[in-house]
C-alpha cells in the first residue's frame, strides 16, 4: 500500500515538475533575454529526461488543453543554440515514437511541419552541416510526414526537396545519415510533382546504386531504398526513365537473386519491395513491354509457384499475380464484332444516345485494342476481398445525389392532353361496370381447348443424331422398361408422336400417313418423347391432386364480356423489318437434346444419393399447378424471336420444383482466384496442352464439331438462351463468350445454355470471359444454376446450385475506348466455375439465375385464369400493346368481385384504391419474375387473407415490361438497345411502347384522380444480398448532402417508410438496413422516381431481390431459391394488407381475417389483438380513443402483463406513432401506460397516461433530421429546441425510439431523451422541449 502511494506521489511530482519546466521555458521565450540560452538548454535537457523516463509525461504533453507542444515548438523556432535544438528534436522524437499516429497528428496541427522544414533549410547552409542535427531532423520528418498530407507541397515551397537528395549523394557510405534521408524522400515522393522534380535530379539512378544483389548487410537500408524507388516509379516520367536505362531487367535479376538466396524467408520485405518497384514501372505500356521482353512472365510465374507452399509468402504471390495479370498482352475478343450476333432494324434511329453511337461506329472499331498508360490497378492485392456494393451502407457519392429542391419536389404533370389519355379508359372497365347483367353465381371452370389454328407437329429430337433401324426401337424400348418400370404402361399406351395439326389438315390425314411420318423419325426421338411424356406420371406419382392440373394440360379460359384490347404504336410499323414471324408457324417444335441412356445404374444412384445426403431435407410442395407442359408448347408457338428459335429448352418444358434441401452460400476456398489466374497465365507461357478449338459459334453456323467423345456439345438456340461462342482451351476447359444485347455492343452477364456429351467423374472448367461488371456475388458465395435432364427423369426436375472454385476477376480481354463509349481500357471480367457431372451423356442446362421465359409467363397467366373462381375473383387479362417484335405485353387486373349488384357493393368495388405493380424491365433479372409469380398466385388464391386483400385493392399488374429482351436472351435492354428503365421521363412510343403505355396508364389514373396507393417495380440486384427497397424522399436525399439548411423547412409525410418497415418484420428475406430513399441524378429517369415525381405516387418503390442469398434473418447463409422468391411475392401482398389495416380509420369494419394475418402468413413474433374481442380492449378504445397495433411481447418484456402498441389516428394520421397500453391482467387495465422503471423492462409497474405519453416512431434510421410527433410531456425539462433540430438515433427500448441531440449523444454526455415538440396541444407547457422521464 505504501509503495502504491509512493508511486502515485512520484507521478504527481513528475507531472507538476513538467508543468513547472514548461512554464519556465515559456517565460524564456517571452522575455527573449540574451544569455538565457544556458537556461533553455538546461530546461530542455530536464524535460528530455522526464519524457524519456515517464510515459505519463509524454501523454500529458499531447493531451487536450496542454500547451506543452506549442511551447516546445516556439522554443525550437526561436532558439539558435545547437544543443537546445538537439534536445527539443529528441523530445519530439520521443513523443511521437510511442502512441501511434495521434501524437504525430497533434504535432502537425500545431504547425510542426513548417517549423522543421524551415530549420532544415537553415541548417543545410552550414558547411559542413551538423550530421547529428540532420539525422534527428530527418528522423522526425519521416515520422510526422505521413500524417501531413501537404508535406510534399510544403517541402517544395520551402525549397528543401534537394537537400535530402544531396545528403544521400554525398554520404552513400554513411548509412546512419542516409537511412532517415531516404525515409524523407519516400514521403516527398508521394506528391507526383515532387517525384518528377526529384527524378530530373537523378534520384532514380541514385536508388539503383543503393539496391543490389543478395547481401545480409545493410538490409534495412535496402528495404527503405526499395520503398522509396517504388514510390518514385509511380510517376510515369520516372518509370519511362527507368525503362530507358534498362532497369526493368535489373529489377527482375535482383528479385531472382534474393528469391534463390533467401531460403529461410527472412527477407520477405525486401523481396516484396522489389516486386512493388516492378509493379510501379509496369503501370505504363513501355514498362509492360520491357517486362515481357525480359521474360518476366515466366520468371514471376515460376518463382510464385515455388512460394505457394509457404503461407507467409502469400503477399509475394499476390503481387506477382497482379503484375502478371497486368502485363498479360491485351487482346480483343475472338469475335468478328462485339455487336450482337443478331440484328433488328429499328423503326426509328435515335438522334443521340448509345444506339445512335453504335450505328455510327466505324466498321473496324472492334479491331482496336486500347493499351493506354493509365492502366487500371483497381484489383485487390490480397486474397481477403471486401464486398464492394453499389451503395453499401447507403454511402452515396455526393455528386450523384440530386440537390436541387425544385427538382426533388414532386410535381404532378400529366405530360399528355387528357383527350389523348382517354385511350386508356378501355383498360379500366371496372370503373364503369355496373354488374347488372353479370351472373355472380359460382360457375365451374371450363376445360381448355387448344387453339385449332395452331399448326405443326412437335418433334422431340434426342442427343443422338445417328439414324437407327426399327430393331433399335424395340431394343431401346426394352431397356427403357427395365430401367424404369413406371414408364412401361405409358410407353405402350402413348403414341410416339404428338399431333397438333390444323383442322383442315386433319380432314385429309390418315393413320397410314401418320405412321409413315412417324417411321421417318430417328428411333431415339420416339423413345425420348415417351420419356418426356412419361415425366408427368413420374413427377407426380405422390400427388393425385396435382395430376388434375399438371398432367392433363387443361386450361380454362374465362369468358369475359369485355373484349381484350390491344394498343398499337402511334405510328405505323410497315417499315419495321420482319423478325421471323411466329416462332413455329408452319414448322415443328423441337425440344432440346434428351439423353438416351435411360436412368443410371443402381451403383451410380447409390453414390449420388449418398453425396446428396449431406443436404438438410426440407418439406417442399409438388409441381406447381400452374405449369403445364403441353400448354407451354402452345404458348411457345406464338412467341416471336429475332433468331427464329425452333427449339424448346427442357427446363422450360418440364418446369421446376424447388430442391428439397437447403443450398448454403458457398464458402470460397482460399487462393482459388490466384490459382485460376495462374492457370490463365500458363496459356501464354506453356502452350503444349492448348487446343484452342471452336466448338460452338453463332456467327458461323456451319461450324462443325468433331465427333469425339471428349468434346462437349453446346447449344443456346432456344427462348432466353444466351451463348455466342465456345472455344475448347484444354481437354476439359472451355472459354464461353456471351452475346451482347441486340442493337448493343455490351451488357454481357445473363447466360443460359445447354451442354451435353459429358463424362462422369471429370472436372470441367467453364470460363465466361466477356462479363462487364467490376464485381459480382460469384466472389461471395453465389453459384450458377444447373438443370439435369437425367435428374428430371428421376422425378427431380429442378434447378440446383452447382460449381466449385468459383470466382470473378478481370481478364486480359478488352474493348477499344471508342466501342466502350469513351472509357479507356475497358476490360472484361471472367466468371469461372468447375463442374463434375453425375451422369454420363446427360443433357444439362446452365443459367445465371432461375430462367423464367415469356412463354412461361403466358402459360402461367392462362392457367391462373382457368383455375380461378369467377364468383370471388375479378380477373382480366388485356394486351397493353405490342412490342417491337410483335409480341403482346400483358396487363392483368385482379380484385374481388362485388358481393352483389346492389349500389353499395358496386360503389365499394369502384372506390377501392389501386395498387400498380410491374416487373422484368431488365431481362437478366429473372428473380423479379419469380417474385411476381408469388404475388400473382397469392392474389389468385382462395385463402381468406387473399380475399380480404382483393376486397381492399384493385391490382393493375404488368408482369413483364420487356418481353422482347426476355425472349431474345438480352441482359438489360430491349430491341431498341436501350435500358427501358431509363426511358420513363420521355418514352418514345415507337421505340419504347411498353414504357410509353405503362406510363400512360398511370397518367390516366392521375387525370381521373385515382392515384395508386402503391407503385412497385420488381427488380433483381447482382451485387447485394437480401431483398430490399428503394423509395423516394426529399428529406432523406437532403440529409446525404450539405444542403441541410433548406431541408429544415420541408414537411414530408414519412408514410413512404411504412411498407418497407412492415416487410422487414414480416418477410424473412427482407432487410430494412439495405433500403434507401435517396433520389440520385443517375436514377431520375427510372420508373420509381418518375412515378413519384411526375405522377405523384408517394409510395413509389423499386423492390430489389438478390441473385445470391441472404446474410440476415431466417435465411442467413443460404442462397436464395424460387421458393423464397415466390414467398417474397406473397409477403409483399401480406404487407399491403397490413398497410391497409394500419391506415384504415378506426370505424372501418375490417374482417377478422385481416387482423389474423400474422397467424397464417406473416409468421412474425407479434400477435394481433382484435379491439372488439376483449372487454379491456373495448374500454381502452372508448376511454383513450386509440387503435390497437400490436401486442407487446410479454414473454420477453414482462412477467404477467400483455401490452399493446396503440395508434391515435385522429391525432397522428396514418401510421406515425404509438403508445404502450396495458390491456389485460392488471388493475390499470384499459389505460395507456408505460413501465415506471424504463431502465429495467422486466418490471411490471405502470404509469397512467395522465402522467405522460410516449411516442414510438416507424422507420427511424441513423442521423436523421427528425420531424418529431408532438406529445404533451411531464418530466425534467432538458433544453429548449427549435423544430427540426439535428437528432441522432441512439438505440431502442423494446422498440421505443431513443433520441438525443447529435453531439451530446455521440460524446456520451447526456442520456437518451424522449422528444416533445410543439404541435399537438398549443397550451402544452412542454412544447418544443426535450424531456427525460422521471426514472431515465
Automatic annotation (TrEMBL):
GO MF annotation list: metallocarboxypeptidase activity; tubulin binding; zinc ion binding
Location(s) in or outside the cell: Cytoplasm, Cytosol; Mitochondrion; Nucleus
InterPro entries: ARM-like (IPR011989), ARM-type_fold (IPR016024), CBPC1/4 (IPR033852), Cytosolic_carboxypeptidase (IPR050821), Pepdidase_M14_N (IPR040626), Peptidase_M14 (IPR000834)
Top class in the EC scheme: hydrolase
Extent of the signal sequence: none
GO terms under biological process: adult walking behavior; anterograde axonal transport of mitochondrion; central nervous system neuron development; cerebellar Purkinje cell differentiation; eye photoreceptor cell differentiation; mitochondrion organization; negative regulation of cell population proliferation; neuromuscular process
EC number in record: 3.4.17.24
GO cellular component, one term: plasma membrane
Catalyzed reaction equations: C-terminal L-alpha-aminoacyl-L-glutamyl-L-glutamyl-[tubulin] + H2O = C-terminal L-alpha-aminoacyl-L-glutamyl-[tubulin] + L-glutamate; (L-glutamyl)(n+1)-gamma-L-glutamyl-L-glutamyl-[protein] + H2O = (L-glutamyl)(n)-gamma-L-glutamyl-L-glutamyl-[protein] + L-glutamate
Cofactor: Zn(2+)
Keywords: Carboxypeptidase, Cytoplasm, Hydrolase, Metal-binding, Metalloprotease, Mitochondrion, Nucleus, Protease, Zinc
PROSITE patterns: PEPTIDASE_M14
PANTHER family, per database record: CYTOSOLIC CARBOXYPEPTIDASE, CYTOSOLIC CARBOXYPEPTIDASE 1
Family: Belongs to the peptidase M14 family.
Name of protein: Cytosolic carboxypeptidase 1
Species name: Taeniopygia guttata (Zebra finch)
Amino acid at each position: 500500500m505504501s509503495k502504491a502511494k509512493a508511486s502515485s506521489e512520484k507521478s504527481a511530482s513528475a507531472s507538476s515538475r513538467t508543468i513547472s519546466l514548461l512554464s519556465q521555458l515559456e517565460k524564456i521565450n517571452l522575455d527573449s533575454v540574451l544569455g538565457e540560452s544556458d537556461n533553455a538548454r538546461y530546461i530542455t535537457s530536464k524535460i528530455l529526461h522526464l519524457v524519456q523516463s515517464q510515459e505519463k509525461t509524454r501523454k500529458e504533453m499531447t493531451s487536450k488543453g496542454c500547451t506543452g507542444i506549442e511551447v516546445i515548438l516556439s522554443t525550437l523556432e526561436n532558439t539558435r543554440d545547437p544543443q537546445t535544438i538537439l534536445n527539443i528534436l529528441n523530445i519530439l522524437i520521443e513523443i511521437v515514437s510511442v502512441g501511434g499516429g495521434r501524437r504525430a497528428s497533434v504535432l502537425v496541427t500545431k504547425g510542426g511541419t513548417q517549423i522543421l522544414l524551415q530549420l532544415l533549410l537553415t541548417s543545410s547552409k552550414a558547411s559542413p552541416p551538423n550530421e547529428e542535427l540532420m539525422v534527428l531532423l530527418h528522423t522526425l520528418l519521416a515520422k510526422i510526414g505521413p500524417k501531413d498530407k501537404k508535406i510534399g507541397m510544403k517541402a517544395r515551397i520551402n525549397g528543401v526537396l534537394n537537400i535530402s537528395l544531396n545528403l544521400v549523394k554525398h554520404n552513400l557510405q554513411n548509412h546512419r545519415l542516409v537511412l532517415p534521408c531516404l525515409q524523407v524522400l519516400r514521403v516527398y515522393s508521394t506528391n507526383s510533382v515532387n517525384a518528377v522534380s526529384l527524378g530530373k535530379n537523378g534520384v532514380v539512378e541514385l536508388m539503383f546504386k543503393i539496391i543490389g544483389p543478395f547481401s545480409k548487410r545493410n538490409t534495412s537500408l535496402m528495404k527503405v531504398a526499395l520503398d522509396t524507388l517504388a514510390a518514385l516509379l509511380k510517376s510515369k516520367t520516372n518509370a519511362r526513365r527507368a525503362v530507358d536505362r534498362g532497369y526493368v531487367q535489373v529489377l527482375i535479376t535482383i528479385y531472382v537473386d534474393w528469391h534463390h538466396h533467401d531460403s529461410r524467408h527472412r527477407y520477405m520485405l525486401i523481396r516484396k519491395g522489389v516486386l512493388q518497384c516492378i509493379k510501379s514501372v509496369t503501370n505504363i505500356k513501355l514498362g509492360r513491354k520491357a517486362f515481357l521482353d525480359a521474360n518476366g512472365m515466366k520468371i514471376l510465374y515460376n518463382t510464385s509457384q515455388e512460394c505457394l507452399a509457404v503461407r507467409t509468402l502469400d503477399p509475394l504471390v499476390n503481387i506477382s499475380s497482379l503484375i502478371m495479370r497486368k502485363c498479360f498482352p491485351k487482346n480483343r475478343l475472338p469475335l468478328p464484332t462485339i455487336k450482337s450476333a443478331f440484328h433488328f432494324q429499328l423503326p426509328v434511329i435515335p438522334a443521340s444516345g448509345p444506339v445512335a453511337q453504335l450505328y455510327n461506329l466505324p466498321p473496324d472499331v472492334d479491331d482496336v485494342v486500347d493499351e493506354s498508360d493509365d492502366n487500371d490497378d483497381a484489383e485487390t492485392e490480397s486474397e481477403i476481398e471486401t464486398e464492394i456494393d453499389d451503395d453499401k451502407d447507403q454511402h452515396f457519392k455526393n455528386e450523384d445525389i440530386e440537390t436541387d429542391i425544385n427538382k426533388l419536389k414532386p410535381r404532378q404533370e400529366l405530360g399528355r392532353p387528357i383527350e389523348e389519355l382517354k385511350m386508356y379508359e378501355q383498360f379500366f372497365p371496372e370503373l364503369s361496370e355496373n354488374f347488372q347483367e353479370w351472373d355472380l353465381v359460382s360457375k365451374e371452370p371450363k376445360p381448355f381447348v387448344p387453339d385449332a389454328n395452331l399448326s405443326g407437329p412437335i418433334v422431340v429430337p434426342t442427343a443422338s443424331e445417328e439414324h437407327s433401324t426399327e430393331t433399335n426401337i424395340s431394343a431401346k424400348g426394352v431397356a427403357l422398361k427395365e430401367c424404369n418400370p413406371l414408364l412401361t404402361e405409358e410407353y405402350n399406351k402413348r403414341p410416339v408422336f404428338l399431333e397438333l395439326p390444323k383442322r383442315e389438315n386433319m380432314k385429309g390425314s390418315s393413320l397410314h400417313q401418320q405412321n409413315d411420318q412417324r417411321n421417318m423419325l430417328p428411333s431415339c426421338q420416339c423413345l425420348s418423347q415417351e420419356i418426356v411424356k412419361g415425366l408427368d406420371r413420374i413427377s407426380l406419382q405422390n400427388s393425385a391432386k396435382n395430376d388434375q392440373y399438371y398432367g392433363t394440360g387443361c386450361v380454362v379460359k374465362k369468358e369475359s364480356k369485355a373484349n381484350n384490347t390491344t394498343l398499337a404504336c402511334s405510328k405505323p410499323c410497315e417499315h419495321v423489318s420482319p423478325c421471323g414471324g411466329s416462332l413455329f408457324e408452319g414448322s415443328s417444335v423441337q425440344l432440346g437434346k434428351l439423353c438416351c441412356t435411360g436412368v443410371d445404374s443402381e451403383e451410380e444412384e447409390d453414390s449420388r444419393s449418398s453425396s446428396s445426403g449431406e443436404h438438410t431435407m426440407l418439406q417442399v410442395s409438388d409441381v406447381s399447378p400452374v405449369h403445364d407442359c403441353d400448354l407451354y408448347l402452345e404458348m411457345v408457338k406464338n412467341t416471336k424471336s429475332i433468331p427464329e428459335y425452333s427449339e424448346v429448352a427442357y427446363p422450360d418444358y418440364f418446369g421446376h420444383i424447388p430442391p428439397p434441401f437447403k443450398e448454403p452460400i458457398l464458402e470460397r476456398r482460399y487462393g482459388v482466384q490466384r490459382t485460376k489466374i495462374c492457370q490463365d497465365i500458363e496459356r501464354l507461357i506453356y502452350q503444349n496442352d492448348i487446343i484452342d478449338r471452336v466448338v460452338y459459334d453463332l456467327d458461323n453456323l456451319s461450324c462443325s464439331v468433331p465427333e469425339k467423345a471428349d468434346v462437349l456439345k453446346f447449344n443456346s438456340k432456344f427462348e432466353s438462351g444466351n451463348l455466342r461462342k465456345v472455344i475448347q482451351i484444354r481437354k476439359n476447359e472451355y472459354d464461353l463468350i456471351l452475346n451482347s444485347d441486340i442493337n448493343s455492343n455490351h451488357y454481357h452477364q445473363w447466360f443460359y445454355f445447354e451442354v451435353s456429351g459429358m463424362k462422369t467423374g471429370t472436372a470441367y472448367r467453364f470460363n465466361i470471359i466477356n462479363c462487364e461488371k467490376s464485381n459480382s456475388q460469384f466472389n461471395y458465395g453465389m453459384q450458377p444454376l444447373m438443370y439435369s435432364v437425367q435428374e428430371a427423369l428421376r422425378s427431380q426436375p429442378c434447378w440446383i446450385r452447382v460449381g466449385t472454385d468459383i470466382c470473378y476477376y478481370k481478364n486480359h480481354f478488352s474493348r477499344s475506348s471508342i466501342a466502350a463509349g469513351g472509357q479507356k481500357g475497358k476490360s472484361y471480367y471472367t466468371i469461372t466455375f468447375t463442374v463434375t457431372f453425375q451422369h454420363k451423356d446427360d443433357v444439362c442446362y446452365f443459367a445465371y439465375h432461375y430462367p423464367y421465359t415469356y412463354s412461361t409467363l403466358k402459360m402461367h397467366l392462362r392457367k391462373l385464369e382457368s383455375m380461378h373462381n369467377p364468383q370471388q375473383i375479378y380477373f382480366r387479362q388485356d394486351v397493353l400493346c405490342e412490342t417491337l417484335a410483335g409480341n403482346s405485353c400483358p396487363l392483368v387486373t385482379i380484385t374481388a368481385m362485388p358481393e352483389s349488384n346492389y349500389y353499395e357493393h358496386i360503389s365499394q368495388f369502384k372506390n377501392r384504391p389501386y395498387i400498380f405493380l410491374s416487373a422484368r424491365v431488365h431481362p437478366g433479372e429473372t428473380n423479379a419474375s419469380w417474385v411476381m409469380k408469388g404475388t400473382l398466385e397469392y392474389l389468385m388464391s382462395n385463402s381468406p387473407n387473399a380475399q380480404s386483400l382483393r376486397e381492399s385493392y384493385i391490382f393493375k399488374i404488368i408482369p413483364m415490361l420487356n418481353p422482347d429482351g426476355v425472349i431474345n436472351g438480352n441482359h438489360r435492354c430491349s430491341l431498341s438497345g436501350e435500358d427501358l428503365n431509363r426511358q420513363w421521363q420521355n418514352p418514345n412510343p415507337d421505340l419504347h411502347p411498353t414504357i410509353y403505355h405503362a406510363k400512360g396508364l398511370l397518367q390516366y389514373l392521375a387525370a381521373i384522380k385515382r392515384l395508386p396507393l402503391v407503385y412497385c417495380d420488381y427488380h433483381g440486384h447482382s451485387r447485394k444480398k437480401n431483398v430490399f427497397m428503394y423509395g423516394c424522399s426529399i428529406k432523406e436525399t437532403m440529409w446525404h448532402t450539405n444542403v441541410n439548411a433548406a431541408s429544415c423547412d420541408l414537411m414530408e409525410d414519412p408514410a413512404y417508410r411504412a411498407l418497407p418497415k412492415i416487410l422487414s418484420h414480416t418477410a424473412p428475406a427482407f432487410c430494412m438496413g439495405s433500403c434507401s430513399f435517396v433520389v440520385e441524378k443517375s436514377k431520375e429517369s427510372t420508373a420509381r422516381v418518375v412515378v413519384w415525381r411526375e405522377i405523384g405516387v408517394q409510395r413509389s418503390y423499386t423492390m430489389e431481390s438478390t441473385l445470391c442469398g441472404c446474410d440476415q434473418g431466417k435465411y442467413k447463409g443460404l442462397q436464395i431459391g424460387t421458393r423464397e422468391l415466390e414467398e417474397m411475392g406473397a409477403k409483399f401482398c401480406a404487407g399491403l394488407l397490413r398497410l391497409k389495416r394500419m391506415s384504415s380509420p378506426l370505424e372501418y369494419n375490417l374482417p377478422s381475417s385481416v387482423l389474423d394475418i400474422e397467424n397464417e402468413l406473416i409468421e412474425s413474433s407479434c400477435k394481433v389483438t382484435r379491439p372488439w374481442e376483449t372487454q379491456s380492449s373495448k374500454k381502452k378504445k372508448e376511454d383513450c380513443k386509440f387503435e390497437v397495433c400490436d401486442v407487446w411481447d410479454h414473454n420477453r418484456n414482462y412477467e404477467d402483463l400483455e401490452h399493446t402498441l396503440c395508434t391515435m389516428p385522429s391525432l397522428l394520421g396514418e401510421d406515425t406513432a404509438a403508445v404502450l397500453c396495458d390491456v389485460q391482467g392488471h388493475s390499470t387495465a384499459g389505460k395507456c401506460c408505460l413501465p415506471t422503471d424504463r431502465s429495467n423492462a422486466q418490471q411490471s409497474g405502470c404509469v397512467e397516461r395522465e402522467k405522460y405519453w410516449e411516442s414510438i416512431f416507424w422507420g427511424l434510421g441513423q442521423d436523421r433530421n427528425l420531424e418529431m410527433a408532438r406529445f404533451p410531456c411531464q418530466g425534467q425539462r432538458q433544453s429548449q429546441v427549435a423544430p427540426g433540430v439535428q437528432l441522432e438515433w441512439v438505440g431502442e427500448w423494446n422498440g421505443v425510439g431513443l433520441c438525443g441531440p447529435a453531439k451530446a449523444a455521440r460524446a456520451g454526455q447526456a442520456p437518451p431523451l424522449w422528444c416533445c415538440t410543439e404541435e399537438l396541444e398549443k397550451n402544452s407547457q412542454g412544447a418544443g422541449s426535450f424531456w427525460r422521464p422521471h426514472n431515465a
